[in-house]
Amino acid sequence: xxxxxxxxxxxxxxxxxxxxxxxxxxxxxxxxRWHRLQGDEVFFLTGTDEHGSKVEESARLVAISPxxxxxxxxxxxxxxxxxLNIQYDEFIRTSDPRHEIEVQNFLMKLRGAKTPLGNxxxxxxxxxxxxxxxxxxxxxxxxxxxxxxSLHPNREITRQxxxxxxxxxxxxxxxxxxxxxxxxxxxIPEGRRNEVVGKLKQGLDDLSISxxxxxxxxxxxxxxxxxxxxxxxALINYYSATQFFEGKKNFWPADVHxxxxxxxxxxxxxxxxxxxxxxxxxxxxxxxxxxxxxxGQKMSKSLGxxxxxxxxxxxxxxxxxxxxxxxxxxxxxxxxxxxTRFRERYQSxxxxxxxxxVSRLTDMIEKYGINKPEHKLTxxxxxxxxxxxxDSFNFNGALxxxxxxxxxxxxxxESNRPWEMFKQGRNDEVKVLLGNLWQELxxxxxxxxxxxxxxxxxxxxxxxxxxxxxxxxxxxxxx
Length: 479
Ligand code: MSP
Description:
By secondary structure, the protein is α/β, with parallel strands linked by helices. It is built from 18 helices and 16 strands.
């Protein structure tokens, strides 16, 4: 049985789930479900990134331990994903002692290893730099705007200097370029791949991979005065999960790491360099989607315009929320979303097009006493309908294909006017016509499964009844 291992980033436990993290998670869920339909053995991993000074600071503010703080907040992600009907296989938390052991083992391997140029992969040095506590990372002078990082304009950058262990990333330029060019791993979309290649060609700086200044983290196994840099700890989750979750050992390498452009460099360069060093195979695909803005503005806590997926679920229901988020923008591009457009799309695509077509067709099937046609359709056969789109991460394209099919069904009804045919006594023709449309609608309903699992099941169940009756309205009017 083919295996399919897909991951989302592990989300900062300090933050709440929002529409951006929901977007990545829904995309991953759709691919995971789609592969399951085809009979693949799927491992879909998500989780939370829990170490670092930001969590330490937040926990201190509410006078609880960082672990309790993280445990409490990790629940919010689990709840949001449950409310969105996300069928992940495992949820990893980086504070899990099993992950911590794997990370320490990994570091021990890095320590003894050589770079492609034959140098020691790790060395001890002094780091001095401009650190953004919001990002858990150092910045160079020219990356800052008004002495702040672009993601946290309200946070002061601090100058820090400390003893660190360094990873000799400098030595990996040629090796990584070669692997990208040979297709050993693929960065999607091509524009992002070119960006990574362009930046790689400018050369690589070594990377500090430990912190003296951070308490809440995994200890460097050979020097307990240091904790492992939170990004290294976090990246290793993709591998460690395969090692300690039951029955996942042979899922490495991942088929797809799904993420947005903000963290592509970590996933397409740093991660591969450290994997190479310890002799592990590289992930096959790093797929990058764009960023959502809200009414033209960047979504951020400080602007107060963060959309909580729970609010969308309350208004539209889980399935429609999944549909609306995915249909808004092409995978590779940034896109603006607004509640007004969500409401319009709900009305046009879901209530009118899909909802009406289902109730209209089932109504006629009931009225004209049509029996359920013979058919060989299955969810697996119907899922092939979207091969071209979903193999190329064209999620909104896939939804457009399905909407097109529904429009086609409803136009066929309009132009053939089965009610007139029936009056004229052309019962056999009505039977053939509605039988064909029934098959088309069943195909569409199956193909919708990865996107809107509940709705899809309701449609399928009603079409597969021995005695088909008019379906209940699927998408109620918005309040
Ligand atoms: N903890 C790190 C990831 C470590 S992975 C080894 C992190 N976490 S995060 O909570 O900030 O989540 C980042 C991811 O959330 C992005 O890569 C993207 O998948 C998703 N998004 C966050 N905001 C987003 C938008 N506004 N739009 C689309 N996706 C966004 O970085």
